[in-house]
Amino acid sequence: MAVKARSLVADYAVYLLARLAVCVLQALPWSWLLGLADLLAWLAYRIDRRHREVARDNLRQAFPEKSPAEIESLVYASYRHLLWVLVEMIRLPRELHAHNAMSRVAFADPAILHRAERWLATGRPLVVITGHLGNWEALSYAMGLLGYRGHVIARRLDNPFLDRYVKRLRIRTGQALLDKNQDFEQIVSILESGGHIAALADQDAGARGEFVRFFGRPASTFKSLALLSLRYEAPIIVLGAVRLAPGLHFRAYLEDEIEPRDYADHPHAVHAITQRFTAALEAMVRRHPEQYFWLHRRWKHQPRQRSPQRNVA
User: Measured between alpha carbons, how far is 274 from 259 in angstroms, rounded to an integer?
Assistant: First the structure.
């Protein structure tokens, strides 16, 4: 199927409107900003029937013990959380700085930063994994401000003007952005030289993904992170940052540390590592289900059912 050509004029108009909206929102007091986010969340919850149903189905499957009222409360919370993430992202450049990063994104275990220093001192490559929990952008931004620089793997935005704008924001803290579909050779080069990469690892990976258990259901997950970890002996750390209070106040968790050398003789090492970091992400989501992106079809693809073989006479 032919890809529809994009209009540079339309893309630039959208970019200008986005920049104008950012300027206005950055100037508003936090109380007004959060009030606007709540209003937009209420409207989205009422209007966006398709994603509302996706969230309901996801939550029913993930938490079968919860009542319909509890499920509906979490569905609405998902919309509200997503809009709060958006306004927090807009305010990050003005609100979060090197002198307040540790107080705004406080680690649940202060020893985490000392262990991070030891990881860096080894000269080994490192793979950082997080998910769409809490505010993943604030976590990345704060880590960059604290001097932990790396490359974030993400999908390039379709609008080239917005894509360049987002990249400029990342560069401010030393975090570079890599496209997961087009920059594989660069990702390999970074790991070969002992660099660090970070990625969101809780999206549906399609029919060819590695199927592991997430909330008790098979979930297609990108296996490239486990493959890269094994190939370059890069430890994996699973991080997350959840909101404590409005106004960019978060608590960061180091949920798991995975040493690929421990899986050197494992017959299904890729599956085992993928399952382990997925379980770590699930553990964080279970503690804060109201701060997770339930609107995504995480279980869209399922393993193919093998048809029974017929006996040939």
Answer: 12
Single-letter code of the amino acid located at 249:
H
Determine the 3-state secondary structure of 254 from DSSP: strand
203-219 tens-digit pLDDT: 999 999 999 999 999 99
Cα distance between residue 138 and residue 100, in whole Å: 13
Contact 187, 228 (CB under 8 A): yes
The answer on pLDDT for 9 being more than 60 is: yes
Looking at residue 306, its amino acid is R
Do 178 and 151 form a contact (C-beta atoms < 8 A)? yes
For 265, the 3-state DSSP assignment is coil
Tell me how far CA of residue 183 lies from CA of 78, 96, 125, 210, in angstroms.
Answer: 32, 29, 17, 21
* List of E strands, 48-182: 105-107, 126-130, 151-154, 176-179
Domain ranges of the chain: 9-291
Bridge partners (DSSP) listed for residue 254: 239
CB 144 within 8 A of CB 173: yes
DSSP state, 262? G
Distances (CA, A) of 226 to 90, 140, 240, 270: 32, 21, 19, 5
Largest CA distance in the chain: 78
* Global confidence as pTM: 0.90
Q: In what order do the strands lie in the sheet with 196-200?
A: 105-107, 249-258, 236-245, 126-130, 196-200, 151-154, 176-179
Q: How far apart are CA 261 and CA 235, in angstroms?
A: 8
Joined tokens for residue 183: 């920059």
Q: How far apart are CA 102 and CA 98, in angstroms?
A: 8
| pLDDT digits 0-9 by tens, 188-245 | 999 999 999 999 999 999 999 999 999 999 999 999 999 999 999 999 999 999 999 9
